[in-house]
Amino acid sequence: MAKIVILVGSVRKNGNTALLAQSFAEGVKEHHDVELVSVADYKVNPCIGCNSCFSRKGHRCFQQDDMVKIYEALAEADLVAIASPVYFYGISAQLKAVIDRLHTPLRNDFKIKRAVLLLAGAAVLPELFDAIIMQYKLVLSFFHLEDAGMVLVRGVKEIGDIKGNPALEEAYTLGLSV
User: Fold this and answer.
1) Fewer CB within a 10 Å sphere, N or C end of the chain?
2) Taking the CA atoms of the chain, what radius of gyration do you get in angstroms?
3) CB-based contacts of 37, cutoff 8 Å, min separation 6
4) Among 19, 37, 38, which residue's Cα sits nearest to residue 172?
5) Closest by CA position to 85, among listed 120, 117, 122
6) Residues with Cβ < 8 Å from 7, sequence gap 6 or more?
7) How far apart are CA 67 and CA 44, in angstroms?
8) What is the pTM of this model?
9) Sign of CA dihedral 140, 142, 119, 26
């Protein structure tokens, strides 16, 4: 049984991204352990690029914040899912801070082999997710991860707009398949 960690980047607890992540989690639960991590519940400072983690004992960041708890969850994960609302063609700032803080040698101890991308955006533009997908592919390449799938949802702005959307079933099915 694998451990799946879902990093949820939305500050809206019952928003569209949270519902999308929950649907994926329900599928995952059929065969694996799953942990939903709402990054907005953690105080994570942005990386300042000082690289002190490369020389500090235990590769710990000098910043005293909640990123330690997220590192602990990721250290146990076999697959990580990134779930984010789309804010001005990018992922949420809260999630971006977490991803940036993975620039640490601690990541070398992670056993994560695959990743999933779950996105919900208000706009319906065909290119809405292009920048995020490009960044996701670069992260996959950098960390030598396999893409296990994506669910991309357009046109969901207000809380609950995603209800009844076929993307929820798609996310559930993707969760079953990992």
Assistant:
1) N
2) 16
3) 5, 6, 7, 8, 70, 73
4) 19
5) 120
6) 37, 39, 70, 80, 81, 82, 83, 95, 98
7) 6
8) 0.96
9) positive
Cβ neighbours of residue 147 closer than 8 Å, sequence gap 6 or more: 114, 115, 116, 117, 136, 137, 140
Q: CB-based contacts of 19: which residues, under 8 Å, 6+ apart?
A: 160, 162, 163, 168
Residue type, 68: V
- Tokens found for residue 124: 């319906």
Structure token pair of residue 170: 């798609």
The percentage of residues in the chain with a pLDDT greater than 90, rounded to a whole number, is 93
Joined tokens for residue 145: 């991860």
pLDDT digits (tens, 9 = 90+) for 63-92: 999 999 999 999 999 999 999 999 999 999
Largest CA-CA distance found in the chain, in angstroms, rounded: 50
Q: Pull the structure tokens for residue 35.
A: 């942990």
Mean pLDDT score, 149-174 = 97
pLDDT at 60: 87
Reduced to 3 states (helix: H, G, I; strand: E, B; else coil), residue 174 is helix
**CA–CA gap between residue 176 and residue 43 (Å, rounded):** 31
